[in-house]
């Protein structure tokens, strides 16, 4: 279930990287994915609970992994000044 939003995040990050946007713009999809994952985890843990809430937690975990990969894609090739 997290594959579709995760792949969309990676594609948008790659597209921003290819268009040579600034690093701040390139990390926006990853940041939004982290925020969405935290909100989903909170909803699953506090409001839903149980096995259904666990599914939200698993979704949030994999979205965080996709966000980390997105940060790596955005950071790759950026030289420190």
Task: Summarize this structure as a short list of keywords or feature phrases.
single chain; mainly alpha; 4 helices; elongated
Explain this structure.
Keywords: Membrane, Transmembrane, Transmembrane helix. This is Preprotein translocase subunit SecD. It comes from Lentibacillus salicampi. The chain crosses the membrane at residues 21-43, 55-74. This protein has helices at 3-18, 23-26, 28-48, 50-75. It is elongated. It contains four helices and no strands. The chain has one domain (3-75). Helix 1 (3-18) packs antiparallel against helix 3 (28-48) and helix 1 runs parallel beside helix 4. By secondary structure, the chain is mostly helical.
């Amino acid at each position: 279930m997290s594959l579709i939003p995760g792949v969309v995040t990676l594609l948008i990050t790659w597209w921003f990287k290819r268009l040579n946007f600034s690093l701040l713009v390139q990390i926006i999809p990853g940041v939004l994915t982290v925020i969405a994952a935290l909100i989903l985890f909170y909803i699953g843990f506090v409001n839903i609970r149980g096995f259904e809430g666990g599914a939200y937690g698993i979704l949030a975990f994999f979205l965080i992994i996709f966000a980390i990969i997105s940060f790596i894609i955005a950071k790759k090739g950026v030289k420190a000044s």
